[in-house]
Amino acid sequence: MTALPSLQSIQDDYDLLDSEERYRLLIDLGRTLEPMPDALKTDATKVRGCSASVWVYPTRLDDGRLHFLADSNAAITKGIVALVLSAVQDRRAEEIAGTDIAAELGPFDLSRQLSSNRTQGIPNMIALIQDTARRFG
């Protein structure tokens, strides 16, 4: 299990970069996601409303925390997925359900940095993660 960097650590780097370098940072962040087995990339795990294909699969760790496997067929989108997961990965379901993930991502100002096609699925991904957390919680 690979640990994603903390959201604060990512933001510290992100704030120092220009637009092109931010794209590279997101692409590199996407490469840190654990490989998601193709067998888990199904219609049931697909996030609706994304311009690229995005899959998110939750697992519950022995201590009750949630761990998500995720992937995308587009490098920049995969980075955005990793960014979202950095806000919630390996936290307790109740904590995830109570987190304002969109607010946590606010400092990244993704809607200004990326095209609307790249960001349109983020609310759906957040909703899927929080619905999952409520179910597990």
What's the gist of this structure?
By secondary structure, this protein is α+β, with helices and mostly antiparallel strands. Helices cover 47% and strands 12% of the residues.
Describe the protein.
The chain is an alpha+beta fold. The chain has one domain (7-136): Sufe protein. Chain: A, CATH 3.90.1010.10. The protein contains 8 helices and 3 strands, in the order H-H-E-E-H-E-H-H-H-H-H. The protein has helices at 7-14, 19-30, 75-86, 93-97, 101-105, 110-113, 116-119, 122-136, and strands at 54-60, 65-72, 91-92. Strands 1-2-3 form a 3-stranded antiparallel beta sheet. Helix 2 (19-30) packs across helix 3. It is globular, with a radius of gyration of 14 Å. The two termini are 22 Å apart.
Task: Please name the defining characteristics of this protein.
single chain, about 140 residues, 3-stranded antiparallel β-sheet, about 45% helix, Sufe protein. Chain: A, alpha+beta
